[in-house]
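TICKET: design request
STATUS: open
ATTACHED STRUCTURE:
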């Protein structure tokens, strides 16, 4: 828990007038904050206990359409309510918005007040509970890469995204000069997030024009996902405040490198000892870590959808762009899907498959499930793959498109056992909707290619 506002402190802040608004938010399937802006007085008197929302919020596509085919909700069932139950451990200031605090909610069934099984926060909590049965916690970090563009979202939308201008004119990887020019956005982003209880480590320029990276100190899996979600939201809002657009689309241009969200992971005992490290093991890996990584590797196709949920996500997987194309592990090797990094207690595995468009709750839950399956089945870790893995024909490919990833998700007995059939059916439907929407669109590319020449 890194949030920094107690209920008593909130009441005091409402009393002295420094807080007048509380954002009460759930996390949707796309990893976004949705909810209501409460007058703070109402929140501290009533709504801190619970509020309500339409249950379509966990069954929409990215444009808030109401696709059919979901068992949990539909026009037939009348799109009733869910309960939004504030998790008061997440109460915090939102310092970049005047007089505002926020709280994250768990989403509960309206009638029996149990977790809605396909709620992203509930899905992750279930895997965290499975780790706890072993006496373990997962320490995780999800890196945030994104692009900054000149002009606000509405300006870029009005020009149909045809005149997008990144904030810089050259590859700004680790650049101090260029990133100094971006401090109007990045400095308030770092400082406001720290003041909101999100433990920012640093920001840096990334390896493309206008590309940024924001690193948050690792934490337990739920804190990591909460921090990621709040930080992504803050990046969009603070960029907007400063007259820029922050985009977390995985691949915004054919000729540009895409944006990632690498997932660093390690297991620890509840007493704070690394379960992954064994000083006598190969590369310092314990047997448990080897089984865990073997699970990540074996089941990578099953959970790729949770790392790459849109049509666009798959365009990021391109050779020579630092985005992986192959399922393999390697020591400190950025061409691998799974990179072993850190020493001693810091030893961890970084999954490099996920795009910046992933939902961190779903990505982490799916990877914990795969790792635990590896441990439970004592899977053998394949040999390390050294060198340039892009060029290695022997390594299996990461699914190259949404259709393949959807089939692997639907057929995954590992994920069905871990998440439940209803949850996998729900997200399979979400993936199918994404594909169906795309399949009927006639793109500019097709017109330009075939209008005259077809
Ligand atoms: P990279 O070189 O890939 O950018 P960094 O050294 O910047 O990697 O670390 C990336 C992330 O890894 C940071 O968010 C950091 O907090 C996290 N991290 C460090 N140690 C661990 C660990 N033992 N388990 C999980 N994450 C960790």
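STATUS: resolved
RESOLUTION: sequence designed for all positions
ATTACHED SEQUENCE:
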């Amino acid at each position: 828990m890194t949030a920094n506002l107690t209920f008593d402190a909130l009441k005091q802040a409402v009393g002295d007038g420094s807080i007048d608004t509380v954002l009460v938010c759930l996390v949707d399937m796309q990893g976004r904050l949705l909810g209501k802006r409460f007058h703070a007085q109402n929140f501290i008197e009533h709504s801190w206990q619970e509020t309500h929302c339409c249950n379509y919020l966990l069954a929409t596509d990215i444009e808030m359409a109401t696709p059919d085919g979901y068992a949990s909700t539909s026009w037939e069932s009348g799109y009733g309510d869910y309960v939004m139950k504030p998790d008061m451990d997440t109460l915090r200031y939102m310092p970049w918005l005047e007089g505002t605090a926020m709280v994250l909610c768990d989403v509960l069934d309206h009638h029996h007040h149990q977790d809605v099984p396909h709620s992203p926060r509930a899905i992750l909590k279930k895997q965290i509970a499975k780790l706890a049965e072993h006496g373990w916690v997962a320490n995780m970090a999800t890196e945030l890469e994104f692009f900054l563009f000149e002009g606000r979202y509405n300006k870029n939308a009005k020009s149909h995204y045809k005149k997008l201008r990144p904030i810089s004119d050259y590859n700004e990887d680790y650049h101090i000069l260029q990133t100094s020019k971006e401090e109007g956005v990045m400095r308030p982003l770092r400082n406001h997030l720290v003041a909101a209880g999100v433990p920012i480590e640093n920001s840096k320029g990334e390896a493309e024009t206008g590309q940024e990276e924001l690193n948050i100190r690792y934490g337990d899996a739920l804190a990591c996902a909460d921090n990621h979600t709040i930080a992504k939201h803050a990046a969009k809002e603070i960029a907007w405040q400063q007259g820029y657009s922050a985009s977390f689309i995985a691949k915004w241009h054919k000729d540009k490198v895409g944006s990632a969200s690498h997932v660093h992971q390690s297991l620890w005992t509840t007493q704070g000892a690394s379960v992954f490290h064994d000083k006598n093991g190969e590369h310092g890996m314990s047997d448990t870590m080897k089984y865990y990584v073997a699970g990540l590797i074996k089941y990578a196709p099953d959970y790729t959808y949770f790392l790459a949920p849109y049509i666009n996500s798959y365009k990021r997987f391109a050779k020579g762009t630092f985005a992986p194309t192959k399922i393999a592990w390697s020591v400190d090797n950025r061409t691998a899907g799974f990179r072993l990094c850190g020493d001693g207690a810091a030893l961890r595995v970084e999954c490099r498959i996920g795009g910046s468009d992933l939902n961190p709750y779903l990505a982490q839950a799916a990877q914990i499930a795969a790792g635990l399956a590896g441990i439970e089945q004592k899977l053998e870790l394949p040999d390390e793959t050294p060198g340039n893995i892009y060029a290695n024909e022997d390594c299996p490919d990461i699914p190259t498109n949404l259709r393949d990833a959807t089939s692997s998700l639907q057929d995954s007995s590992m994920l069905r056992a871990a998440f439940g059939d209803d949850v996998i059916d729900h997200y399979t439907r979400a993936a199918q909707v994404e594909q169906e929407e795309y399949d009927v669109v006639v793109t500019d590319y097709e017109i330009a290619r075939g209008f005259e020449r077809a």
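CLOSING REMARK: The two ends are 59 Å apart (CA to CA). The chain is about 35% helix and 20% strand.
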